[in-house]
Design goal:
Number of domains of chain A: 2
CATH superfamily of one domain in chain B: ABC transporter type 1, transmembrane domain
CATH superfamily of the largest domain in chain A: ABC transporter type 1, transmembrane domain
Helix content of chain A: 55-70%
Strand content of chain A: 5-15%
Structural class of chain B: alpha/beta
Shape of chain B: elongated
Oligomer: heterodimer
Radius of gyration of chain A: 36 Å
Strand order of the largest sheet of chain B: 6-9-10-3-11-12
Largest sheet of chain B: 6 strands, mixed
Structural class of chain A: alpha/beta
CATH class of the largest domain in chain A: Mainly Alpha
Strand order of the largest sheet of chain A: 6-7-8-3-9-10
Distance between the termini of chain A: 60 Å
Strand content of chain B: 5-15%
Distance between the termini of chain B: 43 Å
Chain lengths: ~625, ~600
């Protein structure tokens, strides 16, 4: 995943920026207008103090002079003092409108951009291969999709406009000041670079302390999370004191590192306050000196003081924003990494997307299929410690047959199913469906024709009805009920207070492992797929229910693969395939396998021998 | 009894709630008082600056003399230094309060959790508890510390500003101050609106996180169901709602500041027009007008801060309520005073005083129900001799887990009593009971850390040799050694990285190391490959030897080896005996064995 470099990170940011350009330009224009009007207020104050109440000439700005002339000159202002007040309020009104417009436009730009990026990320994460998800940490991915994305959003919503405002202020304020008095302007901007530089350096340096505090917090919540999920073990071993000490240590550590960070911040705010006040004081003292000599008017001094106050905050803020800029780039880099991952159809590790959409009847053929998981990856479904490998596997399943898979963990059963659903593609050999190589069949077409129930199926956070009819939302209620009945879950669902409308997950019922499996089975049955695959999906179901579900399955015409450790389940199949270490060691009808006495027969003995002896 | 609810949304300010929480943070009171004093100092100094501007104009400019300007500059510098020190202190003290509150609330909450009954954890979603101890606590720490800062500063600055203006000129002050009431009203109204909008955005944001999480975790399912396009469509609807809400919220926020600046400019205009008029008449100095202009520019800030903090307190109230509901939930099962005095508390047990446990377990006419009107056990009696192994079998809901929960005292009977070695378990401490108990769950739970650490959880002072010995006893040693890293292999949360069978073996070793007198095993139903299965059978046999044990059994091998099999139906024992006896009786047991039990 080392695909990203600074260019791609920047490209992501620019890519997000480009469609929002008109809005951003609008925001900049509004900011500039607002700033101009904001500066007009002190100049109006100056006009009033110096020229209306005093007798000094008007401030040396054409716009002010034109404006005064427009309202009838200084004399008219003197006669109608409220006119001056109205002008001050009027300028502020335009200023306010500009600030609001800029704020709204940059919010619109940022939120639109964020939405586009969110959708793109979500869509992309669904399109990349299962292999990618197997090796990625879901917590890390989630972090990138949420907090990293938010960092970028904030950058566009807040930081960009802060920088724009600060720049507009500086660019527009300095000419005004220079016109009033070049010397005092030098004094007025003397400490600005220092304030900016100090803030910038500080927030760049203090980043580590921020991170340490965040990490301590994350560590603490991980501990808590684990404590809560293992609470029964804690109680059963009476380990409360030990757990408490562990938590207290972490809690104390978090306090320490966070306090350290806050002490650094205290130093920053203390120092920068002194800087700001000294800068203001310098303007006041130097301005007073000049004014007492008559070099500037009182009004001009007031203009300097007001402008200085307007400048100081954004300049200081800009230091913080620029120090934060790195964060947005890092976040963009982490998101770009995900987006750089090729989608399934473009993944060089997989075969091409395939184009055919043949009718699927359900004959399955494996010809010399070999497959190994990429280094460091495991089967995402089994999540077992050893990565299974398939070597030179060949078999044929006729349309409509029911086949049982037996074998130890890691022997390759699940891998065969994953290859069939094109979640992975074989390294060599061919898989044929009704005689067509499946790498030539469109991936989604293939999957649409396989009802796949995993060992630990995933139910979505919605109602039970929606979970069952996910794939066929148009399904009639009676069809949903029928599927649920076949999966022996209908009565269970009906027993819930809200029945089929019961939500699943945190906000609804917590289903047992067996119940989840049965809902997933109902979901697969409702698809009416010609091929049904059950990856040990009856493992958490008691034997009686297991038998009921099997009865329902045998009534269907579909080609069915049943993975199970229960020989009683397997014995009803047309054929049983026994896997060992990625090879098919036995394949025959259960009856003849029992009589020839291989692995299947031994397992049958182990599971039934003792019982038969007694019964 | 409602233990948690997200519907807490009181709009009424509840001072009692805050007082309760403040009382928990009472050790910070001296710091808070110091901080408040400092804030008053900061507010007063802030209010001084416009007056200083006015003073400079009147004293130096109007008189056209720079006498004393040096001293003035020196004073200004000193004020700068003082304000710098005060600000430094303010952040340091507020920081100490913030982390202090967070630390204390977390500690209290975690400690309280250790005393709550199992039923609480069965009822309360884990995520709910997590949020209380993470974001809620953090929010409260922030608002207590920085809310105090802003309110103290805001009030002090407002008072000092008003005082300074009144001192300079009463009439002009009263005229200018007329803008304060509309400013305050608008601030309060806006802050409240902004918070409502933000709350909406936050809710949508967590929905988006949940959707992302689902999208990531469910990828294999999504792909096999070919749900990509439909999922994205739904997700996009959600992000569209988010976009709308976020823009609304941001627009509201960006409307507020211009509005208060606008109101402030009315104040400026009033000061200039009215003040200027009187300057012309000679009844007011120019410096005073300069000072007033300065005040009108700055006084919306304290008003805004106070309004913001007040609304934030109101918004944080639900966090306070939920945390306080956790902290005040009474544990349903507590040791009596006498028991605590004798045997110690959960966090400070007095092990020396503990009597030994032999392991005879007696239920005397016990009744129990999880929810009213649905009794699980009624008038249930049972006597198990020390050292006996008991297999509990029966359909879901027959009462197997309930019996186990009652023996562990995770729940307490509604009537009747449970005795261990002839003594009511309420006369012994919970920790004594749990200290002698071994419990292996149906789905074994391991903690993050090495396998060795996980086994050591059974007995904290065990050395490596004892740990390996325990593993050998349950035939886990070979399996662990075959793993990459062996005993030092790190496992993830919940035991991630190990197969179910391996996790079970490790949890057996952990239980055997604890060497409990009373052992409870909830057998896993899920099937494991045959080899591991055989190991687990051997391990189970070893674990049950020589100790009283209750097994919620699903495996025929376990049941056959039990001293006693209890067949339960609707909370009653319908059959009781050894395997061979019950098989001969050809009753429920024989039927269950045929139908219900994993035939391994």
């Amino acid at each position: 995943m080392a695909l990203s470099d600074r260019t791609t990170d920047n490209r992501l940011l620019y890519g997000m920026l480009a469609p929002q350009l008109p809005r951003l330009i609008g925001a900049i224009a509004a900011t500039a207008l607002a700033t101009l009007c904001a500066f007009a207020v002190p100049l109006m104050v100056q006009t009033m103090i110096d020229s209306v109440f005093g007798s000094a000439p008007l401030p040396p700005f054409r716009s002010i002079r034109l404006l005064v002339a427009a309202v009838g000159g200084v004399d008219s202002l003197r006669a109608h003092l409220w006119l001056g007040g109205l002008l001050i309020i009027g300028f502020t009104l335009v200023d306010s409108a500009g600030v609001f417009t800029a704020g709204r436009l940059s919010a619109v730009a940022a939120e639109r951009g964020a939405r586009v990026l969110r959708d793109r990320l979500y869509g992309h994460l669904q399109s990349v291969s299962v292999a990618y998800h197997a090796q990625a940490s879901s917590g890390d991915l989630l972090q990138r999709c949420t907090s990293d994305l938010d960092t970028i959003r904030r950058f566009f919503a807040i930081q960009l406009s802060e920088v724009g405002r600060a720049l507009a202020m500086v660019v527009l304020a300095i000419p005004v000041m220079l016109r009033l008095h070049p010397g005092l302007t030098m004094v007025a901007v003397a400490l600005l670079p220092v304030a900016f530089g100090f803030t910038y350096r500080f927030f760049a340096d203090v980043q580590k302390a921020f991170e340490r505090s965040d990490e301590a917090e994350a560590e603490l919540s991980a501990l808590l999370q684990e404590h809560l999920s293992g609470i029964r073990v804690v109680r059963a071993f009476a380990r409360e004191p030990w757990e408490f000490r562990r938590f207290a240590r972490r809690n104390e550590y978090h306090r320490r590192v966070t306090m350290k960070l806050l002490m650094l911040l205290a130093r920053y705010w203390g120092t920068s306050t002194v800087l700001v006040i000294i800068q203001l004081g310098a303007v006041l003292v130097a301005g007073t000196l000049l004014a007492s000599r008559g070099e500037i008017t009182v009004g001009a001094l007031l203009v300097f003081l007001m402008l200085e106050q307007m400048l100081l905050w954004p300049i200081r803020q800009m230091g913080m924003v620029l120090a934060d800029l790195g964060k947005a780039r890092v976040a963009a880099g982490r998101i770009a990494e995900i987006l750089a991952q090729p989608s399934e159809d473009a993944d060089p590790q997989l075969a091409g997307p395939g184009t055919l959409q043949p009718p699927v009847r359900g004959k399955i053929e494996f010809r010399n299929v070999s497959f190994a998981y990429p280094a460091g990856q495991q089967s995402p479904v089994e999540r077992e410690a050893r990565a299974p490998t398939i070597a030179e596997l060949s078999f044929t399943i006729e349309s409509g047959q029911t086949i049982g898979f037996l074998g130890a963990t890691g022997s390759g059963k699940t891998t065969v199913l994953m290859l069939l659903a094109r979640l992975y593609d074989p390294d060599s050999g061919e898989i044929l469906i009704d005689g067509v190589d499946i790498t030539r069949i469109e991936r989604r077409w293939m999957r649409r024709h396989i009802g796949f129930v995993m060992q630990e199926p995933f139910l979505f956070a919605r109602t039970l009805r929606e979970n069952i009819s996910l794939v066929r939302r148009s399904a009639h209620e009676m069809e949903v009920f029928a599927a649920a009945r076949s999966a022996a879950i209908h009565e269970v669902i009906e027993s819930f207070q809200e029945g089929y409308e019961t939500p699943v997950g945190e906000k609804g019922v917590t289903l047992s492992g067996g119940q989840k499996q049965r809902v997933a089975i109902a979901r697969a049955l409702l698809t009416g797929s010609p091929i049904l695959v059950f990856d040990d999906s009856l493992s958490a179901v008691d034997t009686r229910t297991d038998a009921r579900i099997r009865e329902a399955l045998f009534e269907r015409q579909a080609t069915t693969i049943l993975v199970s450790h229960r020989t009683t389940t397997l014995v009803r199949c047309d054929k049983v395939f026994v896997f060992d270490n990625g090879r098919l060691v036995e394949q025959d009808s259960p009856r003849s396998l029992l009589s020839t006495g291989g692995h299947f027969a031994r397992t049958w003995q182990q599971q039934h021998g003792a019982q038969n002896a007694d019964l | 009894m409602p233990t948690y609810s997200d519907q807490v949304r009181s709009t009424e300010f509840a001072p009692r709630l805050w007082l309760d929480l403040f009382r928990r943070a009472r050790f910070l009171r001296p710091t808070m008082i110091r901080l408040a004093l400092i804030m008053i100092g900061v507010g007063v100094i802030d209010a001084l600056f416009p007056a200083l501007n006015g003073f400079a104009v009147d004293r130096f400019v109007t008189r056209q003399s720079v006498d004393g300007l040096g001293a003035f500059a020196g004073f200004y510098l000193a004020l700068a230094a003082l304000q710098g020190v005060l600000i430094w202190l303010l952040v340091a003290l507020a920081g100490r309060i913030e982390v202090g509150v967070i630390h204390r609330f977390r500690q209290d909450a975690f400690m309280h959790l250790q005393h709550l009954s199992m039923s609480y954890f069965d009822r309360t979603p884990r995520g709910w508890i997590m949020t209380r101890l993470t974001s809620d606590v953090q929010r409260l720490g922030e608002i207590v510390a920085w809310g105090l800062v802003d309110v103290a500063w805001g009030l002090a600055a407002m008072a000092a500003t008003a005082a300074a203006m009144l001192l300079l000129d009463v009439r002009l002050a009263l005229i200018v101050l007329t803008v304060v009431p509309p400013l305050a009203l608008i601030s309060v109204w806006f802050q409240r609106r902004v918070l409502t909008e933000q709350r909406h955005v936050r809710r949508l944001n967590s929905e988006i996180s949940a959707a992302f999480n689902e999208g990531i975790v469910a990828t294999p399912t999504t792909k096999t169901l070919v749900r990509e396009a439909a999922n994205l469509e739904e997700f996009s609807r959600l992000t569209g709602r988010m976009r709308g809400a976020a823009i609304r919220a941001a627009s509201f926020s960006s409307l507020y500041l211009p509005l208060v600046i606008l109101i402030g400019s009315v104040g400026t205009a009033l000061a200039i027009v009215h003040g200027g008029m009187r300057v012309q008449l000679g009844t007011l100095t120019l410096g005073t007008v300069v000072a007033f202009v300065g005040y009108t520019v700055m006084f919306f800030e304290p008003v805004r801060e106070v309004a913001r903090v007040l609304t934030e307190f109101q918004a944080a109230q639900s966090a306070a309520e939920r945390l306080s509901s956790l902290l005040t939930t009474a544990p349903e099962i507590v040791d009596s005073q006498a028991v605590v005095a004798k045997f110690g508390t959960v966090l400070a047990p007095q092990r020396d005083a503990w009597p030994a446990m032999h392991g005879r377990v007696t239920f005397e006419r016990v009744s129990f129900s999880y929810s009213e009107g649905e009794p699980v056990l009624e008038d249930f009696s049972l006597d198990v001799a020390a050292g006996q192994s008991v297999a509990l079998i029966g359909e879901t809901g027959a009462g197997k887990s309930t019996i186990v929960n009652l023996i562990c005292r995770f729940y307490e009977p509604a009537a009747g009593r449970i005795l261990i070695d002839g003594v009511d378990i309420r006369e012994r401490s919970l920790t004594w009971l749990h200290g002698h108990l071994g419990y292996v769950l149906q789905t074994p739970h391991l903690f993050r850390g090495t396998i060795r650490d996980n086994i050591r959880y059974g007995r904290l002072d065990a050395d490596d040799e004892q740990i390996e010995q325990a593993a050998r006893l349950v035939a886990a040693d070979e399996v662990i050694r075959a793993l990459e890293g062996g005993y030092a292999r790190a496992v993830g949360e919940g035991g991630a990285g190990l197969s179910t069978g391996e996790k079970q073996l490790v949890s057996f070793a952990r239980a055997v190391l604890a060497d409990p007198r009373l052992f409870i095993l909830d057998e896993a139903t899920s099937s494991i490959d045959t080899e591991t299965e055989l190991r687990i059978q051997r391990a189970t046999r070893h674990l049950l030897q020589g100790r009283t044990s209750f097994v919620i059994a699903h495996r025929l091998s376990t049941i056959r080896n039990a001293d006693r099999i209890l067949v339960l139906e609707h909370g009653r024992i319908v059959e009781d005996g050894r395997h061979s006896e019950l098989m001969r009786a050809a009753g429920n047991y024989a039927r269950l064995v045929q139908e219900q039990i994993a035939v391994v």
